[in-house]
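cron nightly-structures :: item 1 of 1
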Amino acid sequence: MKAEKFKSPFKGRSLLNWIDWKREEIEWILDKAFLVKKQSHNGEVHQRFLGKTIALIFEKRSTRTRSSFETAFGEEGGHPVFMSTDDIQLGGKESVEDTARVLGRMFSAIEFRGFKQEHVELLAKHSGIPVINGLTDSFHPTQVLADIMTLKEQFGTLKGLSVCFCGDGRNNMARSLMLICAKFGINFSIFAPKELSPDEEIIKICTPFAKESGASITISDEISVVKGADCLYTDVWVSMGEETLKDERTKLLQPYQVNRELMAATGKSSTIFLHCLPAVKGQEVTEEVFESNASRVFDQAENRKHTIKAIMLALI
C-alpha cells in the first residue's frame, strides 16, 4: 500500500458548481481522474485519505453518487459517514448553519446531495471545511465532470465537440452541461419544448464563458438542432420531487425521446449516447439506443467514481 502525498493547489476549496472554476483548474482535476482510474485498473492501493473523515449528507436517494463517494474515500483509507434526513436534524430542529458549524469541527469535508442550492452554499460558508455538491436542483457538478471525462476518452479531445441535451432543458443536468461545455469550448445545444427551455439566468452566466472558449449555445424545439452532434444526452423526464407531473411531462416530452430516428438525425455514425442514470427505458430513451453500441452510459457511470475521487483528492 502507498500513502503518497497528493499535492493540490485547491486544498480547502469547495465545489458548489463550476462557475468560479477556470478551465485550467477543471482540467487539472480531470487529469487526476485519468490518473486514479489508471491506478485503479492497475490494482494499485493507496491510502491518501488515511485519518480523514467525510460527512455524506443525502436528502435524495442515490446509487452512483453514494457508491462513488463511499468506495473512493474508503479505498483511500478514509472514513465516510452516511447521513440521511432520517439521521440528522439538517434544516429541521437544527438550522443548516448550526449543522455546518458542528460538522466542521468533526469532519475533514462534507458532501451534500439534496434539493436547495442554498443549503450546500450555507454548509460551505459556515463549516470551515471543503464542501462538495453531490447534486442540488440547480447543479450537478460531479456528474458533468464524469461526462467530460467520458467524452475525452471517446473522442480524444473536447474543444470543438458538439453535445445536444434532449428533454427538460431547465433541469440541473442541462444547466450543468451548458456550463462545463461553455468552459471547454464544446458546442452545446438543447432540444426541448419551449415550455421547458432553460432560464435566462443560466444562459447569462454561460454566454461569456462560451464566447471566451469559442463554443456556441443553441436552444431549440426543432429536431434540426441535433444535426452534427457528437453526443446526444438525456435525463429522466420526471425529476425527484416532481412525481405528480408525470403524465403532463410524458406527453410534453415524447417528441424529444432519444430513439433510433433521433440518433440518425445527427447525420453522424459516430454519435454516442450518454445518460446520467437512472434511466426509464421506453420514456426518455428507447431500450434499443440504451443497449446499442453507441451507448457509453456504463463507462460514464464508472467515471463518476474516478472523477469524485479526483475531486476529493484535490480539495481534501
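cron nightly-structures :: done
Strands lie at 53-58, 79-84, 109-113, 131-135, 162-166, 187-191, 217-220, 231-234, 272-275.
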